[in-house]
Design a protein that fits this description.
- The protein is of the alpha/beta class.
- It has a single domain, classed as 2-Layer Sandwich (Transcription Regulator spoIIAA), CATH 3.30.750.24.
- Strand 2, helix 1 and strand 3 form a beta-alpha-beta unit.
- Helix 1 packs parallel to helix 2.
- The chain starts with a strand and ends with a helix.
- The mean pLDDT is about 95.
Length: about 120
């Protein structure tokens, strides 16, 4: 799985490309955790626009990052899921704890508003 990292302000955007399965989940977790530390990001956005498959290992990786972000009272969001990926995340209850936005820019705008208030 490929990951493209972008930074907008204090938000790390992780654009995932390919299959997020048990073969990729641990590597993705390590690379995202490293990038969060390196960029000192306070917020994390997962961009799933180009994820073609995901299993329960991917859900576990997402929830682990959510827990890590919550320990520091930071924000996290998911953007751009295909309908099948969005259905998987919805059935797993991910969207009951992590906000979904259409674009990374929209998520960053919401994070910025939270920091101002």
């Amino acid at each position: 799985m490929e990951i493209i990292f972008n930074v907008m302000g204090n938000t790390l955007i992780a654009e995932l490309l390919g299959e997020l399965d048990h073969h990729a989940a641990d590597s993705v977790r390590q690379r995202i955790d490293s990038a969060l530390d390196n960029y000192r990001a306070q917020n994390l956005v997962f961009d799933f626009n180009k994820v073609t498959f995901m299993d329960s290992s991917g859900i576990g990786m997402i929830l682990g990052r959510y827990r890590k972000m919550g320990e520091k009272d930071n924000n996290m969001a998911i953007v751009g899921c295909s309908k099948p990926i969005r259905n998987i995340l919805n059935m797993a209850g991910v969207f009951s704890i992590i906000d979904y936005y259409n674009t990374a820019e929209e998520a960053v705008e919401v994070f910025d508003r939270k920091e101002v208030s």
